[in-house]
Amino acid sequence: MDITRPERSADVCFAKFAVAQSFDSLPRSVVERTKAIFLDTLGIMARGACAPSVSSLRKTLVHGGSGSSTVLGTPCKAHPSVAALLNASLPTITQYDEGHRRSLGHPGIHIVPAAFAVGEDKRISGKDIIIAISTGYEVSARIGLSVFPMNPLVHPHGHWPTIGAAVAVGKILSFTERQFVDLINSMSTLTLFTWRKNTIAGATIHHLAPGLGASHAIIVALAIQGGLIGPPRCLEEYFLPFSSSQPKPEILTEGLGNTYEILNNYFKAYPACAHAHSSIEALENILATHSMSAEEVDRIEVRTYPLASRLNERNPPNALAGMFSIPYCLGTILVRGKLTVDGLATEAPMDPDILNAASRIRVVVDGELNPRYPEGRPSLVRVHLKNGATYEHLVDLPRREKIDSIPGRELEEKFLQMVEPLIGKGRGEELKRRIQDLESVADITELSVYLS
After folding, report:
1. Percent with pLDDT over 70 in the chain
2. 380-405 confidence digits (pLDDT tens)
3. What is the model's pTM?
4. Exposure check for the chain: N or C terminus, fewer CB within 10 A?
5. Rounded distance, CA 428 to CA 451, Å?
């Protein structure tokens, strides 16, 4: 079926695409990647639920368990919009969330919580949630590509991925083409525009951006289902030019239905901002062949592209800011030997030894490396020891972001590590097996019992 005729606007093309999607029409590679994203996102949500900082809001919003959707970290249930708000606010606590390589955003942490919450309420099948997530991901990733580069002040969380979350919900609610058009344009006028500096400054209100986005997606979808209508052509006439000074509407539907952007996702190897990963990997490669202690290091120079160079704070005020600080991430490796969720995503005071190491790390823009971005995320790390020795390593693109390098066993181990503090290893193993065979799950609430 031809869904991308030139005379059709993108919202209409997306609507036709969303209605036409079925499980049997999905390539096997898309099914497997969608399951991997579901597994990974559910895992980091579970880990985030263990953070003390979210417990107060959870208690305030969840009143006695009235509802049908799981709220991670409590046996109570809630309305889907409340469950999605709370659950989607959890992944950024660890900064371990998957991302879309070409648009440089994080669709999964918006789409999965929204689809899971509504899916529980409607008791949909595993096949249905695969269709919903993959459809929403495709729409949101294409919108993300069309607004790249974004306004440099705006962070993508709560922004274009929320349109995909709404599409996923609309798919679960069996929307018509007309309803999808209204939904896409309504979300285009109701998305968040959050300040990018929130992360570097350690403003933990940042965690609410994907949560509010997922919740908005559900509420707006329910409003459309109830009869409200959206503004015409808002996606192309308002959202795109307001989000980017270089919008590219012509690529919104290019290859739609034939190519799948979900296959261009990546899974994080480190609990930190993805723009820091090349620097982290470069230092790990140096330390793999040259043994040294933090005390032996005189200074470290990191040369990278402009967006990554913003992660240059040597004295971050808290863990969130630390995960957006290349000096703090590298200092953690020097002091502790590796970067872990337990060591970085913590609410404990900042480690003075790590801060001392970070104070000797400088991040600068390298004009020769800049042209390699965004196809790569280049970083050259040069370590100067007090004895005069110098070691350096260049990483163009972290190994986990290479499209042909999707982890299998590593992703499973990461999931088990993430869920064990909340549900235990045994239940984690069982949940992992059910998700790996998600298309055989008759009712998505079969998974919920492992999370309560």
Report:
1. 97
2. 999 999 999 999 999 999 988 876 65
3. 0.97
4. N
5. 9
Dist. CA 143–CA 103, nearest whole Å: 8
Tokens of 78: 């809630």
Angle at 272 between CA 270 and CA 276, to 5 degrees: 95
Cα–chain center distance at 226: 30
Contact 89, 47 (CB under 8 A): no
CATH of the domain at 439: 1.10.4100.10
- Rounded to whole angstroms, how far apart are CA atoms 18 and 320? 36
Q: State residue 64's pLDDT score.
A: 74
Interstrand relation of 379-385 and 99-100 (parallel, antiparallel or unpaired)? unpaired
Quote the domain boundaries for residue 377: 274-401
Candidates 44, 51, 90; CA nearest to 347 is: 51
Are 62 and 86 in contact, with CB atoms under 8 Å apart?
Answer: yes
5 lies in some domain: no
Q: Do 47 and 196 fall into the same domain?
A: yes
The identity of residue 334, as a single letter, is L
Structural domain includes residue 262: yes
Same domain, 97 and 19: yes
Contact partners, residue 242, CB within 8 Å, separation at least 6:
none
- Looking at this protein, which amino acid is placed at residue 163? I
Whether the per-residue pLDDT at 5 is higher than 70: the answer is: no
Phi first, then psi: what are they for 266, rounded to 5°? Answer: -145, 160
Verify that 42 and 171 share a domain, yes or no. yes
Give yes or no: residues 58 and 204 share one domain.
yes
Average of per-residue pLDDT values in the chain: 95
Token pair 């919108």 in the structure block, residue = 143
**Distance separating alpha carbons of residues 219 and 61, to the nearest angstrom:** 16
- CA dist list (Å): 386 to 56, 191, 282, 287, 389: 47, 51, 20, 16, 7
CA nearest 308: which of 238, 395, 207? Answer: 395
Shared-domain flag, residues 243 and 259: yes
**Residue 403: its pLDDT value, please?**
64
pLDDT band of residue 125 (cuts 50, 70, 90) is: very high
**CB of 246 closer than 8 Å to CB of 144:** no
Same domain, 386 and 415: no
The token duo for 398 is: 């972290």
**Residue closest to 133 by CA, chosen among 444, 451, 445:** 444
**What tens digit of pLDDT does each residue of 229-286 get?**
999 999 999 999 999 999 999 999 999 999 999 999 999 999 999 999 999 999 999 9
CA distance 384 to 375: 29
pLDDT exceeds 60 at position 1: no
Bridge partners of residue 266, in order along the sequence: 99
Q: Are residues 89 and 35 in the same domain?
A: yes
- Residue corresponding to tokens 């006695």: 64
